[in-house]
# Entry
Amino acid sequence: MVLKVFFPSCCSLAESGILIGRWISEQNSAVILAVVHFPFIPVQVKQYLSEVQRVTKVSVSVLGSWSNSKQEKEESMSEFLEDLGTIFSHEPWIQISKEGDSKFWSCSTLQKHSNNPKEEEIILVYYDQRKVMLSHLHPPLDTATSTDHEADNASKLSAIFDTVAKSKILFMTDRYDDGPIKLTHWQSDGVEASIIVELMKQASVPACMLLTFLVSLISGICRSRVLKFWPLSFLWSKLSTCEQLGHRLQHLQVISSNKKAQTQTQLMRKANIFVSLLIDVALGILLMSWLYRKNRIGHLADTLIPMADHVAEELQDLLQWLMGAPAGLKMNRALDQVLGRFFLYHIHLWISYIHLMSPFIEMILWYVGLSACLGLTVALCILSDIIALLTFHIYCFYVYGARLYCLKIYGLSSLWRLFRGKKWNVLRQRVDSCSYDLDQLFIGTLLFTILLFLLPTTALYYLVFTLLRLLVVIVQGLIHLLVDLIDSLPLYSIILRLCRSYRLAAGVKFRVLEQQDGKPLRLLMQINPLSYGSVVQTYRLPTYSCYPKDSWASLCKKLFLGELIYPWKHKGEKQD
# Structure
C-alpha cells in the first residue's frame, strides 16, 4: 500500500525535531503541519496539541520524527528518534531525515505494534503551506459531466486543504515567542501582518455602524406608505433608475450587515459587492467631473432641443411619405389620411411640449449630472429613462399601431373560425364546434372583407413604428447590458485571480523532483488556478432585469401578432 506524506517545503531547513500534523486513515496519508524543535517536554507537547484540537476541531497529533543533521547521521540520534515513537505512540511512526547538503532524503516507517509489518511504498509530496492555507479549493462546476473518480479526487484534496486551513491557530506562533515549544512553519520567522490592514479593520467598525444607520433610514423611507400610492408606486416600479437605486441599496445592506460571513462564498460575495460599489462610484465621480468641466452641461442642453426638432421633422417627413403612395403601394386612402393626421397631431403636441420645457432643460441636466456621484450605473439608468421620455411619442405611435393591428389580426382569426364552424371557448380555453345561422355568416363575411382590405394600410404603419420602437429598445438594451455587466462582474475575484491566482484553486498538479530506486518518490504539489471564465461563473453577482426576458421565437410571435414588446402590463387571458 502506498503511503503519502505531505511535507511543507518551508520545513526543509528546520532543525531536528518531531513532526506534528494530521493522519488521514481513509487515504493512508499524513499531512505534516509543523516541526517541534528539540529540546521539549513531551507532556507540554501533548497539552499544546490537545488545546489545538479543541480550538480547530482537527485531530492533530505527533506523526513522526524529523532529522536534519549537517554531519553524518549518528546512531545515538537514530535510536533516540525511534524511541520517541514509544512516547507518542502513533502507528505508523514516520521517520524523515536529510543528511547534510545532499538532495537525497530518506523516509521510512515503523510499526512496532503490528503483527505483520510490511514495507510500504512512500511518496513524499512537498507543498507550499502559505498558498495552501490561503487558497480555496473549488469543486468541479459541471457536476453532471464529472465522473465519480474526479469527485473522489476532489474530496481527497479538499481534506488536505481543509486540514491546513483549519490549523491557522498553529501558525500564529513564531520563534520570538517565549513559550516552551518552538515550531517551524510558514510563519515561524514572523507572523504576516499589515499595519494598514489593521488600521482599516479598526476604522471599519464605526464606518459600518454609520453606514448601517444611513441604510436603515433610507430603507425606512422607501418602505413608507407615501411611495405605495399612485403614481409614485407606478414610477418606482417602471423607472430603471429607481430599480437600480433599490438594487444598490440591497448591496449596501449586505456590506453593512453585522453578520459575519459563514462560508468562503459569502465572504467573496461581500468583497465583490464592495469592490463593485467602489469602482462604480469612482467611475461616476470621473463622469461627473468631466460633465461639469468646460460647461459641457450647457453644450449638451443647447444640442438637445435642435436634435429633438430634427427627429420630429424626420417623423413628419416619414408620415407624409406614408400618407402618399409609399414604395408604389396602393393604400386605403381614407384610413391612411386619418392615421397620418392623427400621428401628425401627436408630433405637433410633442414639439410644443419640448419647446415649453426648453428653458428648464439645462437646469434639469445640471441636477441630473449630480446623480453620477451615486455611481456610473445610476447615471446610465438615468440616461435610459431620459431616452424613454424623449421618445415617448414614438412609444405612443407604436402602441396605437400595435393595438390597431392586433385588433384586426384577432378579428380576422375569429371570423376565420366562424367560416369553419368553430369558436373560441373562453371558459375551457379551447376551440369548440359551433353552428351559425345565415345572418351571422353574412355579417361575418362583410366584416372579414372589410378587415382584410384595411389590413395592409394598418400593417404598414405598424411595421414602420415597430422598427422605430425596436431601435429605441436596442439602444436601451445596450445601456442595460452595460449596467448589468458592472453590477454582476465579480471584480474582486478577477483581481484576486490576476494578482494571487493560488487563492482561487481549481485543483493541483504534481511535478516529479526525484525518482530513484531505494529512495522515496519526491513530488512537488502546485496549485492549478481557476480559469477566468470559471471565476466569473462561480462568483457572478445576481442582477435585476427591467424587462421580461423573451426568446427569439416568442419575440417574433409577439411582433407577428401585434403584441407589445416589453409591455408595462402583461397580456391577460385570450378573449374573443
Notes: Residues 2-184 form a domain with the Cytidine Deaminase; domain 2 fold (CATH 3.40.140). The chain is about 55% helix and 15% strand. The radius of gyration is 37 Å.
